[in-house]
Structures are given as C-alpha cells and as structure tokens.
Amino acid sequence: MADLAAPVLDVRGLKTVFHTRAGEVHAVNSVSFSLRPGEVLGVVGESGSGKSVTMMSLLGLLPSPPADVRGGQVLLGGRDLLKISPKELQSVRGAKVGFVFQDPMTSLNPVFTVGNQIMEPLRKHMGMTKAQAADRAVELLELVGIPDARRRLKSYPHQFSGGMRQRVMIAIALACDPDVLIADEPTTALDVTIQAQILELVKELRQKLGMAIIWITHDLGVIAAIADRVMVMYGGQVAEHAPVKELFANPQHPYTRALLRTIPSISGEREARLQVIEGQPPMLTAEPASCPFRARCIHSLDRCAHENPGRHGVDGKPLGTGHDVACFWSPDLMAEGEDA
Amino acid sequence: MLDAGAQPLVQVTDLKMYFPIHTGLLRRHTGDVKAVDGVSFSINTGETLGLVGESGCGKSTVGRALLRLYEPTAGKVVIDGQDVATLTPEALRKKRPTMQMVFQDPQASLNPRMTVADIIGEPLQEHANLDEQGRLRRIYELMDQVGLNRSFANRYPYAFSGGQRQRIGIARALALNPKFIVCDEPIAALDVSIQAQVVNLLEDLQNRLGLTYLFISHDLSMVRHIADRVAVMYLGRIAELSPRDALYARPLHPYAEALLSAVNEPDPNRARRQRIILKGDVPSPANPPKGCNFCTRCPKVFDLCRQVKPDLVQVEPGRFVACHLYTNSNAGPTGTQAPISDNQQGVSQ
Fold it and tell me: Does the record bear Disulfide bond in its keywords (chain B) (predicted)?
C-alpha cells in the first residue's frame, strides 16, 4: 500500500487502566501504531489481550469510571482525540471514524427501522434533510449488497439474517464517508460462507472508497485473507508487528510462533498432534515490569523476568513501518538442536 | 481406527426431528421446523465422526436427538445394540451411563452453585453404587485424567478459566465410563491457544479409554484434525459423508466444496483453493425448497435438482453424497453448466 503517505491515524503510547474492586487492571500498556490511507491493519490477540479496549479508548467509547485512559496521543487529522471535548469527539465518531461491532444483533436497536438507523448519522453529521438522507441510505444499502434497498429501509433488524445485519452495520459505519473504519471482530459471529461474503465486500469497498481499515480478530485465517499489516497483541501490549506475508513467513515473537503452530490447517500436512501453549494469559493487575508472556514462553531468558522488552526493529526500518518485535529472544539464538 | 472387524457402535437410520409451529389464537399446529429431516449414518467403535455445517443446519439437534435429549419425530438410533429412540423411561435411565455429552458453553452448562466435586460427582450419585469414600476417590481420579488439580475440588466454576471449565465438563461426561460421547462444539467458546489443549485432551482420552465421539463443530480445520470421517450437513440433511482425507482433498458435493473453499487458510503465502462465494442465505427450515435443499444457492444446479430430493448414496467406496450430479448420469445439466463428466472424475459407476 501507500508506504510513504502520511498516516491518517497515529496512536502513540496509549495506556488504559480499569479501576475495579479488586484493584487496577492495566488493560492497555503503551500501545503505538499508525494507519495510512487505504491500508488494512489487522489486530490479533486472544480475549483479554487488549485489542478491543485499545480501539474503544481511541474514540472515548469506554465508560469512565471504571475506565481511565491514562496517557498517550491519538492523532487523527492533526488533532489529539484524547484532548478534545466530548462534543467534538462525538463529531469525530461516525463522521471521521466508523465502527463495526462484533455482534450485529445487539448493536442495532431493535425498535427502530434499519432506515432510521442509517439516516441518523447522515442527518446528525452531514446536516441532510430527511429525503436526502433516505436517498443516501438506499445508496449505502445497495453498496453493501442488500437487494430491494428502498423497501428494506422500512424493515426492522429482526427481519434480517445475521449476514444481512452485519451488512447494515457496515452501511451505517460507512454512512458519512469516514477516513478510518474500525471493525471489531465483524465476522466472528457469522458462518464461514457468510464470512466469505463479508470479507469480499470489505475488500471491494476499500478499493472503491480508499479508506483505511483496522480489523480486529482472533482468527489468523481472516487476517491472512484481508490484512496488509498485522499487529499481534498479548497482555495489553504489542508483541509483534509486521507486514502480513512477513509475519506468517518469519514470525519472531515466541507467542506469534506458538500461535501459528496451534491452529490446524485445512490443507497440506495434517499434524498428528496439536501444539499447545501451556498455561493461561496473565492477570494485568499492575503495569508489567517483565514480559507478560514470560510464564508461558518456551524460550524465556533470565532477563525477561526483570525487564519488559520494548519493541525493536527486526528489518532495520523505523518502528511501526516494518517488522518489529517486543522480545529479548530471537530465532537466531536458537541453537541447532533446540526444540523449535 | 477403522479396524477390519469394526462394529458400528452407533447406527442412525432416517432420523427426523421436527419442531411444531403453533400459530393463531387457538395455537393450531400449522407447520414444522424440519431441523433434522432424514439423517442416516453410523459410527464405529473408537471412531470420531465429525459433523460440520453452518448455524441452523441441524447439527446440534442431531447430537441432542441421538442422546434423546429431544424426543425424535421419527427414525432409529441404535447405540450399542439398543434403539434409544424407543426405550422406556426406566430403560433409558439405565442406558444413560453409556452415552454422554460435552456441551458448547462451559459457563452455562455448569451449575454455578455447585463445587467441582459436586458437579463431577452428581452422575456418580445418580447412577453408581459408591459410598462417600469411593465417590471421592473416583472424583479425584477423573480430575487427574482431565488435568485438573485435585486441590481445586471444592472450588466453584467461576474460579476457573474457560479451558478449565471445559475440563470439568469433560470429567463429568467421563464419570460413568461412557462408550459414546457427543461433543457439541466443545471448543467454540475457547481462545485459540486453549482450543488445542482441550482437543489434545479429548484425543488422549479416546486413545486411553477407547471412546467413540460424535464431534459437532463449525470449525473445519479442527474437524480435519480430530475426525476420522466427516458428515457435512445442510438444512437438516447430510450433503456428504466421506472419510476425512478424501473429503478435504476433493469434496464431491457442491456445498461441501463451497464450504471448504470459504475457510481462510492461516497463511497468506500459501496458494489457496479457488474461493466459491455462495449467493444469498440459507432458506428457512420451516419451508425448505422443493427438490434438493441446496438448489437455491448451488452453483451447479440443474432442472432435476428443483424437482427431486437426492438421496444419500455411495458414489465411491466409503463416500456418500446426496447430489444428482453423481447419480443421474443421463440428465446432464442444462444451459451454461459444465458437462457432467467434469464433475464426476473418479466416480466408479
């Protein structure tokens, strides 16, 4: 993609903490990334890795308390979203950044028609009249491939199937021509054949509209199908970041390497036994002073227990543009005989 | 796994499970949701049969009807020599220990007010003649088997992670030494790094205890790993039933082909198979299309498909397909469809 273009979204050192009865939970720790026009950034990680919280923090979508976005910068079009007023932020959400959530059933309001829900951002952010908004809504529904769009405006969410509802969600997110689309596990609740339809649609839309997309998922198959670059998250931090082909061909972080080996494949050699990552993800009760993956890591070094490894480049490119990893160990250290 | 003299432990014949629809003021019976509409298969002792399909295709209903958690509308379910579908309540109760189930959501299927020992011990209390000591010994034994620390026996489910909860569910299913276990999406609610742990456990237990599994899942990659044979369901019927390697190498039914092509290979550097994007959605099982269930979305549909329901027949040794492309060599597809011979490579008859 456009390698040299200025980023549309630039996130630096984001930190989010939740205050709970059991103490603080450090859900996001110094996460930095950038997004350039027209590219798809895939974000992978298991539940609790902080991938959704990161994106919600950007847009002030987390209720505070308990959430507390403690530090960092979120630059969108030259403005720091963490510094602007709630009112200004509201005009950013929907207009500049579209958000598609995981579950299309719970994120659509069941008592309003689909047309009503698509027209809401158009009237609010673009100042359209009702008739203009209705015309644009029809256009949007056609864009996401819903047949008989004009009539469907009057339908309620329950009259749509899961895949259709997700298309409606995408239409709402696209309504005001956002620069950035954030999609949080948009296909996880869908069947594979419907998922294939949505992936195809998003690829097509991105080509047509040229927007940048952040695609959050735990499914490496989806990442391989859609992303240009990938950010692997673990324990609220970025473990590894690389262009998609590079990540799959040359994973550096022991977590990424293990993750790639735990999933069985649909083709090729069939493994006799699945590789496992022993143990459980960490509880993030304090800002980690050591590597969050240490307890489950098969390569952990003495150093990992005392220092939290920062991200460092693997291929000599500046951080956030090429391949970087947050780990002291490296596959080069692997002695000939060491078990991979 | 497929020994020469392997006897089918489970033999399902023409299983139907309809859920009645009642409408109007008088709640008149106006139709049926045909969740399972004539399904037949068998599972050999020690074998794992994978049952795959998309949500709403009836795969979980098959699993539940098999163990008679639903009263099947019609059909025979012979498990270890007895037809479960027609057993009297008392005989069914005696039969229960041989057939057990592992549920999808380990959060919802464990009683939050019971300790782990109570949960695993409940089937023992109900069916086994053990004293307090013996029961506790058995509970510990089961916890060891599924890799749970014995010292957790008096904790409640909330204190465990998803993967550990699933281990509790598996221990409960194993308590009465069953022969047959229905695993209904046992890993769907778990994170990828935990899924492998649970699947390896299920495989170890199968090897050690000689268990027979029906493994219901929508995860085609995982089914390829665990199953010996795979049945692909669509809208209440089996579209294809084939040995695992044959199915994944060369799916015969157009739906099986589309389903496999939709799976995202977790490697962008590997050449992928040609993706077939199916148009539209699955029709309602309350009103399935006339003829073949798949005829509304099938890329290879021809006239006959809209008239006659294809039967599940053996088209190659061990491979069963319900599709007119393989049985009706005279009726060629019309219009621009590919000639039928192209779709019949390797078909012996």
Answer: no
